[in-house]
Amino acid sequence: MSALPPHPLLAELWRSGTELLGTETAIMGGAMTWVSERNLVAAIAEAGGFGVIACGSMTPELLAAEITATRALTDRPFGVNLIVMHPALDALIEVCLDLRVGHIVLAGGLPPGTAIAKIKGAERKLLCFAPSLALAKRLARSGADGLIIEGMEAGGHIGAISTAVLAQEILPFMPDVPIFIAGGIGHGEGIAAFLRMGASGVQMGTRFVCAEESIAHPRFKQAFIRASARDAQPSVQIDPAFKVIPVRALANDGTRRFTETQLEVIGRFRRGELSQEEASLAIEHFWAGALRRAVIDGDVAEGSLMAGQSVGFVKAVQPVATIIAELVAEAEAALARPLGRSAAQSKGRRDARPQPAATGG
Ligand SMILES: Cc1cc2nc3c(=O)[nH]c(=O)nc-3n(C[C@H](O)[C@H](O)[C@H](O)COP(=O)(O)O)c2cc1C
What we know:
Layout: H1 8-13, H2 15-21, E1 27-29, H3 38-46, E2 50-54, H4 60-73, E3 79-83, H5 89-98, E4 103-107, H6 113-121, E5 125-129, H7 133-142, E6 146-150, E7 156-157, H8 163-170, E8 179-182, H9 188-196, E9 201-204, H10 206-209, H11 218-226, E10 232-234, E11 247-250, H12 253-270, H13 276-284, H14 290-295, H15 320-336, H16 343-346
Parallel strand pairs: 1-2, 1-9, 2-3, 3-4, 4-5, 5-6, 6-8, 8-9
Antiparallel strand pairs: 7-11, 10-11
Bound molecules: flavin mononucleotide (FMN).
Flavin mononucleotide (FMN) binds next to strand 9 and helix 10.
C-alpha cells in the first residue's frame, strides 16, 4: 500500500479520474519514450498514481515483454501509450488486449477508427489527446473514455496552444468526460487549480524523470535538476518550407547544431545541391536516436534533453512515492486555503503582507 497523506478534498474533486483509472490519485505519469519503462511505471502505480508505458517505436514483441515485466513488479493498474503513426499499430493493440492491459492511450495524432473500434470492442478504457474543443467532442463521440489536454509548456512533441488556454476552451464544455491536464504542471497548486476548473486529474512527465526509480542516466537527471523553466525551449524552424515538428527540450549543443544544420541544408537546397526531398530528410533525420543517446547513454551535450517548462520544479532525485505525496499534500493545502489567500499569507509570513503599490515606470 502507498502511504499517501489523507486527501479528502482532492478525493472528491478527482473522483471521476480515479474511478476511470482505478487508482488512489488521478495523477498520471505521462508516457516518456525510453524513460517510462517497467521500473518507473510500476513505481508510479505502487505509489497510488497511474503509470503509462511508452511504447515509442518498440516492436510488438518488445512491448509484450515490457508489459509482462511491469506486471511482475505491480498488480496495480497501469496503461500503455501507443503512437498512432506506428506502422504496427494494430499488432501493438492486439498485444495490449492479449495481455489484459486495461487502459490504452493513443497519442501522436487523431486515432484511426479501426484502432478505436478494436479497443472499445474489447471493452478496454481508451484515452486520447484532444488538441481543440471540436476534436475533444469528436473523440468523446467516437468512444474515448477520457481525454488528455496537453499544452505547449509540456516536454517532448508539442502543439501551439498553452495549457491554460486549452483548459478554458475545453473544460467548461465537456463536463461528462474525465479530462486530464498536462503540460507545465510541477506543483500541487497547479493540480488544485485545474481540478477547481473541472478537470478530473493531471498528467505529468518532466516531474517524474528524476524519480529514484527512473532509469534515466544520472547525467540526464543532473541536467534536469540544474535547469530552470526558461531552459526548456521549443525547437526552432528556420524556413516554413522545411517543416520542423516542434519539440520542447533543454537547450544544448545539439539544439544549436540543429539550427546550424538547417541553415546549411537549406543553403545547399538553394544552390541546387540537394532536392527539396533530400533537404527535408536531412533535417527530419537530425534527431534520430537523439533521445536514447541522452536518456540511456547520458550524452547531454548532443542528445535530445526533452523537458517541459515544469523542469524548474525538479530539484532533486526523489522516490516516486515522495514526489506523489508532496504533490498531494500541496494540492490538498491549496484546496483547504480560504479563497483569495495566497499560500504564504495563510502561513502568516511577514513577506506576504501586501506591499505598497509600485509607482512610476
Ligand atoms: C522525455 C520525454 C519524452 C516524452 N515522450 C512521449 C511519448 O513517447 N509519447 C507521448 O504521448 N508523450 C510523450 N511525452 C509527453 C509526456 O507524456 C507528458 O504529456 C508531458 O511530459 C507533460 O508535460 P510536463 O513535461 O510539463 O509534465 C514525453 C515527455 C518527455 C519530457
